[in-house]
Structure to design on (240 residues):
């Protein structure tokens, strides 16, 4: 994959996440794609991740993946972005996240996600 | 070079990696610090623990920078070890780091 294909895959993936297109997400992730989160410190499979997608939206009306800074390397990309969310209460929150991903043959093969749990309460509109 | 210097606590060597107008941003502080503020923080932080190593480094380069994923293991004066998974994105111009952006989970600070 060249840098343009990798960049397109990255944007397609985040657009699909934003639009709730689980079918597109499944198509963009390799069958054996692994997702690792610094918050949990463990790996999940593609199917585990997509199965939990609806749960991740609990209490939220809308999420957008903004301010995307994407840099590509040989077999992947790093994306820094602002996750803006509108809760069902009307509260607006934001998280600042970085993902490093590996790609092969037009699909994502690994996703490493870095975020800060100390921002979760403010994100959801809970106690500061 | 940067991570090796940080491990040794060699502030001069860290400073040599930075451009004069270098800035650093972190996802847990949400504000930018200057080169001097960063170097002061490294100096001040060195006495807070016995040892700090940057392990499991995975580094990818792109046209004007790099991303490093690593496990920062801090050994406290008590002997307790705290591993912290972090990601650092850097912009590099003319052989010097001009911007660092660090992402980690500050909720894990102090956990054993």
């Amino acid at each position: 994959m060249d840098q343009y294909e990798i960049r397109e895959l990255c944007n397609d993936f985040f657009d699909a996440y934003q639009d709730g297109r689980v079918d597109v997400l499944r198509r963009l992730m390799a069958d054996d794609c692994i997702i690792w989160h610094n918050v949990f410190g463990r790996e999940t499979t593609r199917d585990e991740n997509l199965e939990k997608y609806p749960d991740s939206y609990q209490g939220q009306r809308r999420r957008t993946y903004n301010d995307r800074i994407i840099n590509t390397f040989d077999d992947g990309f790093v994306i820094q972005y602002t996750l803006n969310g509108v809760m069902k209460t009307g509260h607006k929150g934001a998280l600042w996240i970085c993902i490093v991903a590996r790609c092969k043959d037009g699909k994502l093969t690994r996703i490493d996600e870095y975020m800060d749990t100390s921002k979760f309460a403010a994100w959801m509109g809970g106690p500061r | 070079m940067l991570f090796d210097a940080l491990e040794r606590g060699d502030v001069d060597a860290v400073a040599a990696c930075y451009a004069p107008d270098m800035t650093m941003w972190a996802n847990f502080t949400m504000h930018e610090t200057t080169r001097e503020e960063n170097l002061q923080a490294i100096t001040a932080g060195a006495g807070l623990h016995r040892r700090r190593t940057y392990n499991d480094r995975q580094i990818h380069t792109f046209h004007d920078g790099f991303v490093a994923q690593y496990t920062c293991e801090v050994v406290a004066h008590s002997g307790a070890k705290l591993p912290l998974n972090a990601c650092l994105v850097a912009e590099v111009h003319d052989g010097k780091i001009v911007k660092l952006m660090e992402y980690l989970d500050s909720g894990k600070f102090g956990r054993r």
